[in-house]
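Contributing: when you submit paired examples, paste them exactly as shown. First protein:
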Amino acid sequence: MLCVLRAGLCAAVVLCGADRVVAQESAPQAAAAAAAPATDAAAAATVSYVVELTEYEWREPLAAGLGAEEILALVLKADARPQADLRETIRLTTLAGTESVVSFGRRSSVTVGRTATGRGEVMRNMQVVEFGTQVKLTAVPQAQRVRLTLHFESSRQLPATADDSPPDVSTTEVSTTVTLDPGKPALVSSFGGNRSSVLVVMVKPQD
């Protein structure tokens, strides 16, 4: 009986000791596991991307029924470029997860009418009009791809139709979220009319 009791006591001591050892080893592992997400998030926050946004204006209406890949292939086709006018290209470097904003424009004095004076003279009525482009974007890594939240807004003066009338203004506004493959161009939007407007974006990690 005594030996059995001692054996039982020894077994109990060994088991308790084992429990203590396991607990001591699991504590650092748990701390490392808890720190891993924070480490990953910190690493993602140091990633920078270069975003290139290009707007083309097609001189003729694009055919109805074309898919996004077909329109993109048509725009990027080298021998088709003479049919399109490059409106502008915007390149912006951004930190992952941080909203970046760029805007630029100009002010133009335009004639909005004429006023006849009492002496028989005619005076032009002038008005200052602002034109330009603004881009807001946020790029977030998503596995091997990039999720891009984009807002694009632009306004341009069209050719005047008469000296005394205010100029027509062409405006474009796009808000979207897309998932992109780094380094691969993607179609953001296209608008068809007498002249079609196509907006293409590409994101790649900064070297």
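Second protein:
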Amino acid sequence: MTSVETVGSQQSSQAFTVLIPRGLQAAVDGLPAQSRQELLAELFRMAALAHEERGLLPSSAPYTLRLDLAGCQVSVELDPSRSRLTLSGLSRARSLA
């Protein structure tokens, strides 16, 4: 029989998964190489940070973070209960020319 403490420690040690849905994969692939690398690095950095700070994250429901990154507007859904970080939106920022 598994104790509650064991289950809790197993869940808290689970790393966050970074998910890029198929519908957004083409947009990610279409970014310039440097922007794509910066985006992916930031997604994995956020996942690692979420794992480290899991106890500080609200666990009731997923929530969305919006940020400007590598010349793009990015939306990321963070779901602590499923240990998942999902890219949920990506659009290139428009330059004012």
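If you have annotations for the second protein, write them as plain sentences, like these:
Residues 33-52 form the longest helix (20 residues).
The chain is about 40% helix and 30% strand.
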